Amino acid sequence: MELPPNLITDDASPYWMNKGDNAWQLTAATLVGLQSVPGLVILYGSIVKKKWAVNSSLYAFAAVLVCWVGWGYQMSFGHKFIHFLGRPNVALDQKFLLKQTFSGMFPNATMVFFQFVFAAITLILIAGALLGRMNFYAWMMFVPIWMTFSYTVGAYSIWCPDGWLSKMGVIDYSGGFVIHLSSGVAGFTAAYWVTTTTSTLPLRFNGGDPYVASIDASLAVLNTHVCAATSLLTWLLLDILFFEKPSVIGATQGMITGLVCITPAAGVVQGWAAIIMGILSGSIPWYTMMVLHKKIWLLKQVDDTMAVFHTHAVAGSLGGLLAGLFAEPRLCRLFYMVDNWQHYTGLLYAFHAGNVGAGFKQLWVQILGIGFIIVLNVFMTSLICVLIRFVVPLRMSEEELREGDEAVHGEQAYALWGDGEKFENSKFNSVGGLDDLPRSKGDIQMV
């Protein structure tokens, strides 16, 4: 919808803006942001060894935001530049930010922020594969370069209305391809370049992706939780059956794979399909992680710290394929707001309607989208890593690997009891005033 010439008026709520939708979109974006910081920071810090509890998530979050408003948003959702990329441009001009966005009844400023948190969480998920392995200075270079030349290509191709896969009708409701498959493949590829030694885990808010506080958003939220819960229980049962011990880590991984798997289809499948997706997302990634990982040479050689290949690449691909099977045409019409029966028809519903060609076409488009994201991220991530290692080493030094955060950042995440005194005398300590900190037993101090 085009705005009248006077874009800036005394009215803080233009005629085209829906206050409820705008508030919902900002809330959804904030919740996704909280999943990154502090959500993933806490998750990563609670799983790795204490010496790696200080991680690079804060840097990635900040760096992506600056790049996003500088050029990334317009490359992902702006005017067409080349076949699979938008024209680089800033997203800071008030005439642009206060104008109605390309989809939804709220301003561009809201859309820029909403899409930023997804770009940021993608980089933070990649960090999960590199935590405690990649040189921090290499990581500082990797984040803006990968966001610019890899993430924007996937986002424009799949989410932008002018994207080639978007026009073909690919179903990616909330980032199963753009976020999870991308981060899983890119993280695994980067881990390959950082180290190939034998190795010894994000949440989503899918209700914000219809760009409106609608019944479809309600369905997406419910399906997301149903799939995640089913996947968690499935993973837990498999751990009990084969290892006789249910673990908290296993439950967490099952929850994550469920969240990832439902992401491409959250608002376009019925509840029974969400349960089936949960069973499959709790079992197939479990099998690749617990069984195949020990048998396939490449998987054993790559030190994927948080197993993002299994929890995101495998689960994201699985969700994309299942969306091609279970996507309900009427629900797809609610989300995509189009009346094109040659797009957005899951294969099972195509059989029922006697339109098998449309169903197989949808499944093919889903497979094409998966293949495109995999090839894009393997190629671009490899190229970026090769170029960076000409400037700085990709891998931490042996001293940094041995000492952990003390050597890399000059600090520890937690000083427990006597650890505070040990850190005080560390050769890496450059902070004074530690004598005044309490040393009572049971104290936990952020250093």
Automatic annotation (TrEMBL):
<keyword id="KW-0472">Membrane</keyword>
<dbReference type="Pfam" id="PF00909">
    <property type="entry name" value="Ammonium_transp"/>
</dbReference>
<feature type="domain" description="Ammonium transporter AmtB-like">
    <location>
        <begin position="23"/>
        <end position="194"/>
    </location>
</feature>
<protein>
    <recommendedName>
        <fullName>Ammonium transporter AmtB-like domain-containing protein</fullName>
    </recommendedName>
</protein>
<dbReference type="GO" id="GO:0005886">
    <property type="term" value="C:plasma membrane"/>
</dbReference>
<feature type="transmembrane region" description="Helical">
    <location>
        <begin position="220"/>
        <end position="243"/>
    </location>
</feature>
<feature type="domain" description="Ammonium transporter AmtB-like">
    <location>
        <begin position="204"/>
        <end position="414"/>
    </location>
</feature>
<keyword id="KW-0812">Transmembrane</keyword>
<feature type="transmembrane region" description="Helical">
    <location>
        <begin position="138"/>
        <end position="159"/>
    </location>
</feature>
<dbReference type="GO" id="GO:0008519">
    <property type="term" value="F:ammonium channel activity"/>
</dbReference>
<feature type="transmembrane region" description="Helical">
    <location>
        <begin position="307"/>
        <end position="327"/>
    </location>
</feature>
<dbReference type="InterPro" id="IPR029020">
    <property type="entry name" value="Ammonium/urea_transptr"/>
</dbReference>
<comment type="similarity">
    <text>Belongs to the ammonia transporter channel (TC 1.A.11.2) family.</text>
</comment>
<feature type="transmembrane region" description="Helical">
    <location>
        <begin position="255"/>
        <end position="287"/>
    </location>
</feature>
<feature type="transmembrane region" description="Helical">
    <location>
        <begin position="52"/>
        <end position="71"/>
    </location>
</feature>
<keyword id="KW-1133">Transmembrane helix</keyword>
<feature type="transmembrane region" description="Helical">
    <location>
        <begin position="23"/>
        <end position="45"/>
    </location>
</feature>
<dbReference type="InterPro" id="IPR001905">
    <property type="entry name" value="Ammonium_transpt"/>
</dbReference>
<feature type="transmembrane region" description="Helical">
    <location>
        <begin position="363"/>
        <end position="392"/>
    </location>
</feature>
<feature type="transmembrane region" description="Helical">
    <location>
        <begin position="112"/>
        <end position="131"/>
    </location>
</feature>
<dbReference type="InterPro" id="IPR024041">
    <property type="entry name" value="NH4_transpt_AmtB-like_dom"/>
</dbReference>
